[in-house]
Amino acid sequence: MSVYFYGCITMDGYLADRVHNLDWLYQTGTTEETDYEKFYQTMDITIMGKRTFQEIKKAGNIATFYPTTQNYVFTHSSNLPENGFTAINADVVEFVRQINKDKNIWIIGGNTILAPLLDHNMVDSIIIQIAPVLLGAGISLFTQKEALKRFKLKDVKRYGQFAELVYEKA
């Protein structure tokens, strides 16, 4: 099993503005400018929080976003109104530990899902696109507990206005 974070942040490290808005991202570029499709084809499972799920829903037909993966949304709700997405009310670390070892897992969006996995050294790769945007405040990507975590730089790419940094666990 490999656990990946793949996503975009601002130059000052934010996933979203203070009210979880992603307009800054949509106004900067599209996934067609990146290796998103190639990355997605290697994934078996997506894991996201409820806010990320709601943001994806705003973009349109959510069923077309992740058609070939098992998709889990961590929420206190018992069900979701969308086919193809399973509501999970559990500890993300324990949930990930139970996943079959031959699966690739994509952590989408939020720091509330990513931080506990980083705290338990369960993230194998971090792929970050950096948008040429400064927000000054917002929702930070990294909120894990204070502890040294080492990754090694594997690759650097440019996609239009985005810089992509690919890191692997050291």
Output the keywords.
170 residues, alpha/beta, Dihydrofolate Reductase, subunit A, 8-stranded mixed sheet, two-stranded antiparallel sheet, 5 helices
Write structural notes for this entry.
With 170 residues, the chain is α/β, with parallel strands linked by helices. The chain has a single domain (2-169), classed as Dihydrofolate Reductase, subunit A, CATH 3.40.430. It has five helices and ten strands. The strands form two sheets. The chain has an eight-stranded mixed beta sheet. The model has no long low-confidence stretch (mean pLDDT 91).
Write the layout of secondary structure elements.
Layout: E1 2-10, E2 14-16, H1 23-26, H2 36-40, E3 45-49, H3 50-58, E4 70-74, E5 85-88, H4 92-97, E6 104-107, H5 111-119, E7 125-131, E8 139-140, E9 151-159, E10 162-169
Parallel strand pairs: 1-6, 1-7, 3-4, 3-6, 4-5
Antiparallel strand pairs: 2-8, 7-10, 9-10
Can you summarize this structure?
The chain has 170 residues and is an alpha/beta fold.
Compressed to H and E, one letter per element, the order equals EEHHEHEEHEHEEEE
Named CATH architecture? 3-Layer(aba) Sandwich
Total of DSSP H or I helical runs spanning 4+ residues: 5
Q: What structural category do the secondary elements indicate?
A: alpha/beta
Whole-number radius of gyration? 15 Å
CATH class: Alpha Beta
Question: What share of residues are in beta strands?
Answer: 25-35%
Give the rounded overall mean pLDDT: 91
**End-to-end separation:** 16 Å
Instruction: Briefly note the CATH topology name.
Output: Dihydrofolate Reductase, subunit A
In the predicted model, the low-confidence regions spanning at least 5 consecutive residues are: none
Count of beta strands: 10
> CATH homologous superfamily - what is it?
Dihydrofolate Reductase, subunit A
Numbering strands along the chain, what is their spatial order in the largest sheet? 5-4-3-6-1-7-10-9
The rough form would be described as globular
